[in-house]
Specification:
This protein is 45% helix and 12% strand. The chain has 250 residues and is of the alpha/beta class. It has a six-stranded parallel sheet, with helices on both faces.
């Protein structure tokens, strides 16, 4: 039986961002789960704190449910989904056959991009969210290579106030993407069966971050040329080739 797959989206996305890659992968009868992070496509569940630790625990729960039925799984994450995938693999390596991440890693030296620092700042982050309009988000995503229909779908969800609240809570729990003093200290717990697949022109997380992480942790790295942060949607065929090659070597 084919190994089950779990795909995790990032910020400000939803499961819709995976459609181009899933079509390119054509996984057939392979069990596939593409959940939405709590609060991102609907209301935040009661009592869900929306911190990085709580989201990581939620990912472990998703992986455990899939693994209980199908055995150890392959997890694929983009952006915050990449960070959460790595953290879940640190916490419960028994659940995973492999992990693959795109355009984000738990790096001790990375300090976050400009928008992450804004979201991390009380009041300023709330003002940014209040002024952010769906139409502007749709244009921004499309300008960075996200297919127009998906950009529109993602932007429509921006009207969900819980989504914007969850994003602020998540980034503030991570001090704007600074993992130096917590998750990055556990990198020795990260299973070796992982890979990085990176849009070479990412304006948020420079390719040098990927190169440093891959060198420091002896991990394979594939750059996707002509792509930025959303390589998974901008160049899905190339990403699919890299993923299939990685999986076939396990």
């Amino acid at each position: 039986m084919a190994t089950a797959k779990l795909f995790l989206h990032g910020v400000p996305d939803s499961p819709a961002i995976w459609r181009p890659l899933l079509a390119a992968l054509d996984l057939g009868d392979t069990p596939v789960a593409v959940p939405a992070l709590p609060g991102f496509t609907g209301p935040l569940p009661a009592g869900f704190a929306a911190t990085k630790e709580v989201y990581a625990g939620w990912v472990v729960e998703q992986a455990a449910a899939l693994a209980a039925e199908h055995g150890p799984i392959d997890i694929v994450g983009h952006d915050w989904g990449a960070l959460l995938a790595q953290r879940a693999a640190m916490l419960r390596p028994d659940l995973f056959r492999s992990w693959a991440v795109s355009n984000a890693v738990i790096d001790p030296d990375y300090r976050g991009h400009r928008i992450a620092r804004i979201w991390n700042t009380p009041i300023l982050g709330e003002i940014f969210m209040a002024l952010s309009k769906p139409a502007a988000l749709a244009r921004g995503l499309a300008d960075q290579g996200v297919p127009a229909d998906i950009a529109e779908e993602e932007a429509a969800q921006w009207t969900n106030k819980d989504k914007r609240r969850a994003i602020l809570k998540l980034y503030r729990s991570a001090k704007g993407l600074n993992f130096q003093h917590d998750w990055a200290r556990d990198l020795d717990r990260l299973p070796a069966n992982g890979t990085l697949i990176w849009g070479a022109g990412d304006p948020y997380v420079d390719r040098s971050v990927a190169e440093r992480f891959a060198a420091d942790n002896n991990m394979p790295l594939t750059f996707i040329g002509g792509a930025g942060h959303w390589a998974i949607a901008e160049r899905p065929q190339e990403v699919a080739v890299a993923l299939r090659a990685f999986w076939s070597g396990l």
